[in-house]
Amino acid sequence: MLEGTRVTGMATDKVREAMQRAGVDYSIELLPWKRAYLSAQQRPDACVYSTSRTPEREGLFKWVGPTAVAEWVMLARADRKLLLRSLEDARGLRIGTYNGDARDAYLRARGFRVDAAHEDLANAGKLLLDRIDLWAASLRTGTTILTRYGYDKKIVPLLVFNRIEVYLACNPGVPDAVVARLNAAFAAMERDGTARRIERRYENWGGPRRQP
């Protein structure tokens, strides 16, 4: 997220803390997800976060973290009264994803009917306009995203269909020694309570926002 000109957020605060502890010079730039993801694959000094660590991606990056644990959740309009007992119940329904995301690839590979948006929150509007039936979202620890945008009474979770750790994913060109120092910093942040203190700062972060 941007606050003024400064990139902020739970994962960002954790990454900054780890970089400082590890003594790594860095800069943070906010980009559209697909561009950020491709940049981390192409630039030998780049990393991208928070990236779902899937088997398909394992060999593409060096992994630092995790920064959080994410639940992949099917969301629907509250007034639709849909019932999902398993992911298979979503087959044939229109599922909103976004370009370049792990959930998009996961569902496409399994033959589901997906409709990718340019960015994730656009799916909320598509859902309310009945352009999609479900939104395959990633909800992380402490997130208040639905409440912040006033969607919490209109959009409801139906099914958690995967739980996955998300990481700072670094280009293979990033030196192993740097990756090791960063992972040691993340481990120390978990042990000394810093990671949890950062998470608590964002549990009730921000007031209501204008809907995108």
From TrEMBL:
Which residue intervals define the domain Solute-binding protein family 3/N-terminal in the entry? 5-202
Superkingdom to which the source organism belongs: Bacteria
Pfam families (alphabetical): SBP_bac_3
Gene3D superfamilies with a match to the protein in the record? Periplasmic binding protein-like II
Protein name per its UniProtKB record: Solute-binding protein family 3/N-terminal domain-containing protein
